[in-house]
Amino acid sequence: MPSYRSELLNVLDQRHYTHQITDAERLDLLASEQIVPGYVGFDPTASSLHVGSLVQIMLLRRLQQTGHKPIVVMGGGTGKIGDPSGRDESRQLMTEEVIAANIASIRKVFERILTFGDGPTDAVMVNNDEWLSGLGYLDLLRDVGPHFTVNRMLTFDSVKMRLDREQPLTFLEFNYMILQAYDFRELAQRYGCRLQMGGSDQWGNIVNGIELTRRTGGGELFGFTTPLLTTADGKKMGKTASGAVWLNEDMLPAYDFWQFWRNTDDRDVGRFLRLFTDIPLDEIERLERLEGAEINDAKVALANAVTALVRGEDAAAAAEATARETFAGGAGGDLPTLSVGDGMALPAALSALGFTASNKEAKRKIAEGAVRLDDEVLSDPAMVLNVAEGEQRRLSLGRKKHAILLR
Known about the structure:
Layout: H1 7-14, E1 20-21, H2 24-33, E2 37-42, H3 54-65, E3 69-74, H4 96-113, E4 124-127, H5 129-132, H6 137-143, H7 150-153, H8 157-164, H9 171-174, H10 176-191, E5 195-199, H11 203-215, E6 222-226, E7 239-240, E8 243-244, H12 254-262, H13 269-276, H14 281-288, H15 295-311, H16 313-327, E9 337-339, E10 344-345, H17 346-352, H18 359-367, E11 371-373, E12 376-377, E13 384-385, E14 393-397, E15 401-406
Parallel strand pairs: 2-3, 2-5, 3-4, 5-6, 9-15
Antiparallel strand pairs: 1-6, 7-8, 10-13, 11-12, 11-14, 14-15
Helix pairs in contact: 10-11, 12-15, 12-16, 13-14, 13-15, 15-16, 17-18
Protein backbone atom coordinates (compact mmCIF):
# COMPACT_ATOMS: atom_id res chain seq x y z
CA MET A 1 0.00 0.00 0.00
CA PRO A 2 1.23 3.54 -0.70
CA SER A 3 2.66 5.49 2.18
CA TYR A 4 1.44 9.06 2.52
CA ARG A 5 2.91 11.90 4.52
CA SER A 6 -0.49 12.88 5.98
CA GLU A 7 -2.15 10.88 8.73
CA LEU A 8 -5.50 11.37 6.99
CA LEU A 9 -4.66 9.53 3.77
CA ASN A 10 -2.66 6.88 5.62
CA VAL A 11 -5.61 6.07 7.90
CA LEU A 12 -8.09 6.04 5.01
CA ASP A 13 -5.80 3.75 3.02
CA GLN A 14 -4.96 1.38 5.88
CA ARG A 15 -8.63 0.95 6.74
CA HIS A 16 -9.56 0.30 3.10
CA TYR A 17 -11.71 3.35 2.38
CA THR A 18 -9.77 4.50 -0.68
CA HIS A 19 -11.19 4.05 -4.18
CA GLN A 20 -10.44 7.24 -6.14
CA ILE A 21 -8.73 10.55 -5.29
CA THR A 22 -8.72 13.45 -7.72
CA ASP A 23 -5.14 14.47 -6.92
CA ALA A 24 -3.70 12.31 -4.16
CA GLU A 25 -0.30 14.01 -4.06
CA ARG A 26 -1.69 17.53 -3.70
CA LEU A 27 -4.34 16.48 -1.16
CA ASP A 28 -1.72 14.60 0.84
CA LEU A 29 0.48 17.70 0.96
CA LEU A 30 -2.44 19.92 2.00
CA ALA A 31 -3.58 17.51 4.74
CA SER A 32 -0.04 17.29 6.13
CA GLU A 33 0.29 21.07 6.41
CA GLN A 34 -3.11 22.39 7.52
CA ILE A 35 -6.63 21.58 8.69
CA VAL A 36 -8.73 20.41 5.75
CA PRO A 37 -12.48 21.00 6.01
CA GLY A 38 -14.24 18.18 4.17
CA TYR A 39 -17.87 17.31 3.57
CA VAL A 40 -20.21 14.46 2.80
CA GLY A 41 -23.79 15.04 1.72
CA PHE A 42 -26.78 13.07 2.98
CA ASP A 43 -30.34 13.16 1.66
CA PRO A 44 -32.97 13.36 4.44
CA THR A 45 -35.40 11.04 2.65
CA ALA A 46 -36.36 9.25 5.89
CA SER A 47 -36.18 9.96 9.64
CA SER A 48 -33.05 7.79 9.87
CA LEU A 49 -30.11 6.86 7.70
CA HIS A 50 -29.32 3.14 7.38
CA VAL A 51 -26.04 1.24 7.55
CA GLY A 52 -25.51 1.82 3.84
CA SER A 53 -24.61 5.40 4.85
CA LEU A 54 -22.31 4.37 7.68
CA VAL A 55 -19.13 4.20 5.59
CA GLN A 56 -19.61 7.86 4.63
CA ILE A 57 -20.32 8.82 8.26
CA MET A 58 -17.13 7.00 9.26
CA LEU A 59 -15.20 8.99 6.64
CA LEU A 60 -16.17 12.13 8.54
CA ARG A 61 -15.13 10.50 11.81
CA ARG A 62 -11.71 9.59 10.34
CA LEU A 63 -11.38 13.15 9.07
CA GLN A 64 -11.94 14.48 12.59
CA GLN A 65 -9.77 11.83 14.24
CA THR A 66 -6.81 12.90 12.09
CA GLY A 67 -7.14 16.59 12.94
CA HIS A 68 -9.44 17.92 10.23
CA LYS A 69 -12.92 19.47 10.14
CA PRO A 70 -16.03 17.45 9.19
CA ILE A 71 -18.93 19.23 7.48
CA VAL A 72 -22.18 17.26 7.45
CA VAL A 73 -24.33 18.56 4.61
CA MET A 74 -28.00 17.69 4.85
CA GLY A 75 -29.73 17.92 1.49
CA GLY A 76 -32.73 19.93 2.55
CA GLY A 77 -32.61 21.71 -0.80
CA THR A 78 -31.56 18.87 -3.08
CA GLY A 79 -33.91 16.63 -1.08
CA LYS A 80 -36.74 18.54 -2.69
CA ILE A 81 -35.54 17.09 -6.00
CA GLY A 82 -34.01 13.66 -5.32
CA ASP A 83 -30.67 12.18 -6.34
CA PRO A 84 -31.09 9.80 -9.32
CA SER A 85 -27.83 7.99 -8.44
CA GLY A 86 -28.42 4.30 -7.82
CA ARG A 87 -32.15 4.60 -8.35
CA ASP A 88 -34.41 2.97 -10.89
CA GLU A 89 -37.29 5.36 -10.45
CA SER A 90 -38.22 8.81 -9.21
CA ARG A 91 -38.52 9.60 -5.49
CA GLN A 92 -41.68 11.03 -4.08
CA LEU A 93 -41.29 14.74 -3.33
CA MET A 94 -41.31 15.68 0.36
CA THR A 95 -42.73 18.73 2.12
CA GLU A 96 -40.43 21.16 3.91
CA GLU A 97 -41.91 20.08 7.25
CA VAL A 98 -41.08 16.42 6.62
CA ILE A 99 -37.54 17.29 5.51
CA ALA A 100 -36.95 19.40 8.65
CA ALA A 101 -38.24 16.63 10.93
CA ASN A 102 -36.05 14.05 9.18
CA ILE A 103 -32.93 16.22 9.57
CA ALA A 104 -33.58 16.71 13.30
CA SER A 105 -33.97 12.95 13.76
CA ILE A 106 -30.88 12.07 11.70
CA ARG A 107 -28.71 14.52 13.66
CA LYS A 108 -28.99 12.34 16.80
CA VAL A 109 -26.73 9.65 15.32
CA PHE A 110 -24.15 12.15 14.09
CA GLU A 111 -23.92 13.62 17.59
CA ARG A 112 -22.76 10.22 18.88
CA ILE A 113 -20.16 9.71 16.17
CA LEU A 114 -18.75 13.23 15.70
CA THR A 115 -17.82 16.06 18.09
CA PHE A 116 -19.77 19.22 17.23
CA GLY A 117 -18.81 22.71 18.32
CA ASP A 118 -17.12 25.96 17.36
CA GLY A 119 -13.50 24.75 17.39
CA PRO A 120 -11.29 24.51 14.30
CA THR A 121 -11.78 20.73 13.98
CA ASP A 122 -15.28 20.53 15.46
CA ALA A 123 -17.99 19.19 13.17
CA VAL A 124 -20.76 21.38 11.79
CA MET A 125 -24.05 20.35 10.21
CA VAL A 126 -25.43 22.58 7.47
CA ASN A 127 -28.50 22.44 5.26
CA ASN A 128 -28.00 23.21 1.57
CA ASP A 129 -31.50 24.66 1.51
CA GLU A 130 -29.87 27.77 3.04
CA TRP A 131 -28.37 28.73 -0.31
CA LEU A 132 -30.29 26.68 -2.87
CA SER A 133 -33.81 27.90 -2.07
CA GLY A 134 -32.75 31.51 -2.53
CA LEU A 135 -31.40 30.95 -6.03
CA GLY A 136 -33.18 32.65 -8.91
CA TYR A 137 -33.71 30.28 -11.82
CA LEU A 138 -32.39 32.68 -14.44
CA ASP A 139 -29.42 33.62 -12.25
CA LEU A 140 -28.53 29.94 -11.86
CA LEU A 141 -28.79 29.32 -15.58
CA ARG A 142 -26.54 32.29 -16.39
CA ASP A 143 -23.99 31.59 -13.64
CA VAL A 144 -23.74 27.80 -13.72
CA GLY A 145 -25.46 26.60 -16.89
CA PRO A 146 -22.67 27.46 -19.35
CA HIS A 147 -20.24 25.14 -17.49
CA PHE A 148 -22.31 21.97 -18.06
CA THR A 149 -22.93 20.22 -21.36
CA VAL A 150 -25.89 17.92 -21.85
CA ASN A 151 -23.59 15.60 -23.81
CA ARG A 152 -21.45 14.99 -20.73
CA MET A 153 -24.37 14.85 -18.32
CA LEU A 154 -25.84 12.00 -20.39
CA THR A 155 -22.68 9.93 -19.84
CA PHE A 156 -23.13 9.72 -16.06
CA ASP A 157 -24.13 6.28 -14.78
CA SER A 158 -27.01 7.68 -12.74
CA VAL A 159 -28.55 9.04 -15.96
CA LYS A 160 -27.51 6.26 -18.34
CA MET A 161 -28.99 3.52 -16.13
CA ARG A 162 -32.43 5.09 -16.15
CA LEU A 163 -32.35 5.84 -19.89
CA ASP A 164 -31.05 2.39 -20.80
CA ARG A 165 -33.95 0.82 -18.90
CA GLU A 166 -36.37 3.27 -20.53
CA GLN A 167 -37.43 4.49 -17.11
CA PRO A 168 -38.46 8.12 -16.66
CA LEU A 169 -35.81 10.62 -15.57
CA THR A 170 -37.49 13.92 -14.85
CA PHE A 171 -35.95 17.26 -15.71
CA LEU A 172 -36.10 17.97 -11.98
CA GLU A 173 -33.77 15.03 -11.20
CA PHE A 174 -31.57 15.84 -14.17
CA ASN A 175 -30.68 19.09 -12.42
CA TYR A 176 -29.46 17.31 -9.26
CA MET A 177 -25.85 17.05 -10.44
CA ILE A 178 -25.75 20.77 -11.21
CA LEU A 179 -27.00 21.64 -7.73
CA GLN A 180 -24.52 19.28 -6.06
CA ALA A 181 -21.69 20.92 -7.97
CA TYR A 182 -23.03 24.29 -6.83
CA ASP A 183 -23.02 22.98 -3.23
CA PHE A 184 -19.28 22.25 -3.38
CA ARG A 185 -18.49 25.73 -4.68
CA GLU A 186 -20.76 27.33 -2.07
CA LEU A 187 -19.23 25.29 0.78
CA ALA A 188 -15.76 26.32 -0.36
CA GLN A 189 -16.79 29.97 -0.22
CA ARG A 190 -18.75 29.82 3.04
CA TYR A 191 -16.75 27.31 5.11
CA GLY A 192 -13.38 27.02 3.37
CA CYS A 193 -14.27 23.45 2.40
CA ARG A 194 -11.55 21.81 0.29
CA LEU A 195 -12.63 18.17 0.10
CA GLN A 196 -15.78 16.31 -0.87
CA MET A 197 -16.08 12.64 -0.01
CA GLY A 198 -18.63 10.05 -1.05
CA GLY A 199 -19.31 6.65 -2.53
CA SER A 200 -18.00 5.65 -5.94
CA ASP A 201 -21.37 6.51 -7.53
CA GLN A 202 -20.75 10.17 -6.58
CA TRP A 203 -17.45 10.51 -8.46
CA GLY A 204 -18.98 12.37 -11.42
CA ASN A 205 -20.90 14.76 -9.17
CA ILE A 206 -17.76 15.47 -7.13
CA VAL A 207 -15.66 16.17 -10.23
CA ASN A 208 -18.40 18.48 -11.51
CA GLY A 209 -18.09 20.58 -8.34
CA ILE A 210 -14.31 20.76 -8.63
CA GLU A 211 -14.49 21.84 -12.27
CA LEU A 212 -17.29 24.36 -11.70
CA THR A 213 -15.29 26.00 -8.90
CA ARG A 214 -12.15 26.14 -11.05
CA ARG A 215 -13.98 27.57 -14.07
CA THR A 216 -15.65 30.28 -11.98
CA GLY A 217 -12.44 31.50 -10.34
CA GLY A 218 -12.51 29.48 -7.12
CA GLY A 219 -9.66 27.69 -5.35
CA GLU A 220 -8.32 24.16 -5.72
CA LEU A 221 -10.71 21.49 -4.45
CA PHE A 222 -10.34 17.72 -4.04
CA GLY A 223 -12.48 14.61 -4.25
CA PHE A 224 -12.28 11.24 -2.50
CA THR A 225 -14.51 8.22 -3.04
CA THR A 226 -14.92 4.84 -1.36
CA PRO A 227 -15.50 1.55 -3.20
CA LEU A 228 -19.04 0.31 -3.74
CA LEU A 229 -19.74 -1.60 -0.54
CA THR A 230 -21.28 -5.02 -0.96
CA THR A 231 -21.23 -8.05 1.30
CA ALA A 232 -19.22 -11.16 0.43
CA ASP A 233 -22.28 -12.72 -1.21
CA GLY A 234 -22.66 -9.71 -3.51
CA LYS A 235 -25.60 -8.03 -1.78
CA LYS A 236 -25.84 -4.30 -1.23
CA MET A 237 -24.75 -3.29 2.25
CA GLY A 238 -27.55 -2.26 4.58
CA LYS A 239 -30.37 -4.29 3.12
CA THR A 240 -31.81 -7.48 4.59
CA ALA A 241 -34.76 -9.68 3.79
CA SER A 242 -36.79 -7.85 6.44
CA GLY A 243 -35.81 -4.34 5.26
CA ALA A 244 -33.22 -1.64 5.90
CA VAL A 245 -30.91 -1.73 8.92
CA TRP A 246 -31.67 1.70 10.37
CA LEU A 247 -29.21 3.66 12.51
CA ASN A 248 -31.82 5.32 14.75
CA GLU A 249 -33.11 3.41 17.77
CA ASP A 250 -36.76 4.29 17.11
CA MET A 251 -36.52 2.69 13.66
CA LEU A 252 -34.75 -0.53 14.71
CA PRO A 253 -34.24 -1.96 18.22
CA ALA A 254 -30.65 -2.12 19.50
CA TYR A 255 -30.76 -5.91 19.73
CA ASP A 256 -31.69 -6.25 16.04
CA PHE A 257 -28.97 -3.75 15.12
CA TRP A 258 -26.40 -5.69 17.17
CA GLN A 259 -27.56 -8.99 15.70
CA PHE A 260 -27.11 -7.68 12.14
CA TRP A 261 -23.39 -7.21 12.80
CA ARG A 262 -23.12 -10.43 14.78
CA ASN A 263 -24.45 -12.29 11.71
CA THR A 264 -21.73 -10.90 9.41
CA ASP A 265 -20.36 -13.35 6.86
CA ASP A 266 -16.99 -14.77 7.98
CA ARG A 267 -15.38 -13.30 4.85
CA ASP A 268 -16.49 -9.76 5.73
CA VAL A 269 -15.43 -9.59 9.37
CA GLY A 270 -11.94 -8.10 8.89
CA ARG A 271 -13.12 -5.56 6.33
CA PHE A 272 -16.03 -4.41 8.48
CA LEU A 273 -13.84 -4.13 11.58
CA ARG A 274 -11.56 -1.75 9.65
CA LEU A 275 -14.36 0.33 8.16
CA PHE A 276 -16.83 0.56 11.01
CA THR A 277 -14.85 0.42 14.27
CA ASP A 278 -11.96 2.17 16.01
CA ILE A 279 -10.39 -1.14 17.06
CA PRO A 280 -6.59 -0.89 16.45
CA LEU A 281 -5.35 -2.49 13.24
CA ASP A 282 -3.09 -5.00 14.99
CA GLU A 283 -6.05 -6.29 17.02
CA ILE A 284 -8.16 -6.49 13.86
CA GLU A 285 -5.44 -8.56 12.21
CA ARG A 286 -5.55 -10.94 15.16
CA LEU A 287 -9.33 -11.19 15.08
CA GLU A 288 -9.56 -11.86 11.35
CA ARG A 289 -7.09 -14.74 11.66
CA LEU A 290 -9.47 -16.63 13.95
CA GLU A 291 -10.95 -19.75 12.42
CA GLY A 292 -13.78 -22.17 13.06
CA ALA A 293 -16.04 -21.35 15.98
CA GLU A 294 -13.54 -18.74 17.23
CA ILE A 295 -14.47 -16.39 14.37
CA ASN A 296 -17.63 -15.75 16.40
CA ASP A 297 -15.48 -13.87 18.92
CA ALA A 298 -14.52 -11.47 16.14
CA LYS A 299 -18.16 -11.07 15.15
CA VAL A 300 -19.15 -10.26 18.73
CA ALA A 301 -16.31 -7.71 18.89
CA LEU A 302 -17.63 -6.16 15.66
CA ALA A 303 -21.23 -6.08 16.90
CA ASN A 304 -20.25 -4.57 20.24
CA ALA A 305 -18.00 -1.91 18.72
CA VAL A 306 -20.45 -0.72 16.06
CA THR A 307 -23.45 -0.80 18.38
CA ALA A 308 -21.53 1.14 21.05
CA LEU A 309 -20.53 3.74 18.46
CA VAL A 310 -23.98 4.22 16.93
CA ARG A 311 -26.30 3.43 19.88
CA GLY A 312 -24.09 3.84 22.95
CA GLU A 313 -22.15 1.56 25.32
CA ASP A 314 -25.23 0.62 27.35
CA ALA A 315 -27.14 -0.50 24.27
CA ALA A 316 -24.23 -2.66 23.14
CA ALA A 317 -23.86 -4.30 26.55
CA ALA A 318 -27.61 -4.98 26.82
CA ALA A 319 -27.74 -6.44 23.30
CA GLU A 320 -24.83 -8.77 23.97
CA ALA A 321 -26.38 -9.89 27.26
CA THR A 322 -29.68 -10.58 25.51
CA ALA A 323 -27.89 -12.63 22.87
CA ARG A 324 -26.11 -14.69 25.55
CA GLU A 325 -29.38 -15.37 27.38
CA THR A 326 -31.18 -16.24 24.15
CA PHE A 327 -28.62 -18.75 22.95
CA ALA A 328 -28.33 -20.18 26.46
CA GLY A 329 -32.06 -20.87 26.39
CA GLY A 330 -33.26 -17.90 28.43
CA ALA A 331 -35.81 -15.32 27.37
CA GLY A 332 -33.57 -12.34 26.71
CA GLY A 333 -34.90 -9.04 28.00
CA ASP A 334 -34.08 -6.96 24.92
CA LEU A 335 -35.81 -9.15 22.34
CA PRO A 336 -38.72 -7.74 20.31
CA THR A 337 -42.11 -8.48 21.81
CA LEU A 338 -45.52 -9.25 20.29
CA SER A 339 -48.87 -9.31 22.01
CA VAL A 340 -51.04 -12.15 20.66
CA GLY A 341 -54.12 -11.15 22.65
CA ASP A 342 -56.71 -13.92 22.75
CA GLY A 343 -54.81 -15.81 20.04
CA MET A 344 -52.95 -15.15 16.80
CA ALA A 345 -52.32 -17.41 13.81
CA LEU A 346 -48.70 -18.55 13.64
CA PRO A 347 -48.04 -17.21 10.09
CA ALA A 348 -49.55 -13.85 11.06
CA ALA A 349 -47.28 -13.63 14.11
CA LEU A 350 -44.15 -14.36 12.06
CA SER A 351 -45.10 -11.65 9.56
CA ALA A 352 -46.06 -9.14 12.26
CA LEU A 353 -42.60 -9.54 13.80
CA GLY A 354 -40.92 -8.99 10.43
CA PHE A 355 -39.44 -12.48 10.54
CA THR A 356 -41.12 -13.19 7.21
CA ALA A 357 -42.27 -10.86 4.46
CA SER A 358 -45.67 -12.54 4.01
CA ASN A 359 -47.89 -15.30 5.36
CA LYS A 360 -46.95 -17.36 2.32
CA GLU A 361 -43.26 -17.17 3.25
CA ALA A 362 -44.17 -17.93 6.88
CA LYS A 363 -45.96 -21.14 5.86
CA ARG A 364 -42.94 -22.18 3.83
CA LYS A 365 -40.64 -21.66 6.83
CA ILE A 366 -43.00 -23.69 9.02
CA ALA A 367 -42.96 -26.51 6.47
CA GLU A 368 -39.14 -26.41 6.50
CA GLY A 369 -39.12 -26.95 10.28
CA ALA A 370 -37.44 -23.59 10.90
CA VAL A 371 -40.01 -22.26 13.41
CA ARG A 372 -39.90 -23.08 17.13
CA LEU A 373 -41.94 -22.17 20.18
CA ASP A 374 -39.88 -22.48 23.37
CA ASP A 375 -37.49 -24.78 21.42
CA GLU A 376 -40.31 -27.03 20.19
CA VAL A 377 -40.43 -27.25 16.38
CA LEU A 378 -43.82 -26.18 15.00
CA SER A 379 -45.20 -27.90 11.90
CA ASP A 380 -48.85 -26.80 11.71
CA PRO A 381 -49.39 -23.57 9.71
CA ALA A 382 -52.94 -23.39 11.08
CA MET A 383 -51.71 -23.24 14.68
CA VAL A 384 -53.04 -20.41 16.85
CA LEU A 385 -50.56 -19.00 19.36
CA ASN A 386 -51.86 -18.44 22.89
CA VAL A 387 -50.09 -17.07 25.95
CA ALA A 388 -51.49 -17.22 29.47
CA GLU A 389 -51.89 -14.00 31.43
CA GLY A 390 -48.58 -12.98 33.02
CA GLU A 391 -46.52 -15.53 31.04
CA GLN A 392 -44.02 -15.18 28.22
CA ARG A 393 -43.16 -17.55 25.39
CA ARG A 394 -40.28 -17.41 22.94
CA LEU A 395 -40.92 -17.68 19.19
CA SER A 396 -37.89 -18.36 17.00
CA LEU A 397 -37.20 -18.53 13.27
CA GLY A 398 -33.94 -20.30 12.60
CA ARG A 399 -31.03 -19.64 14.96
CA LYS A 400 -30.93 -15.87 14.61
CA LYS A 401 -34.47 -14.48 14.94
CA HIS A 402 -36.18 -14.57 18.32
CA ALA A 403 -39.09 -12.71 19.92
CA ILE A 404 -41.06 -12.78 23.15
CA LEU A 405 -44.79 -13.47 22.91
CA LEU A 406 -47.11 -11.85 25.48
CA ARG A 407 -50.84 -12.05 25.96
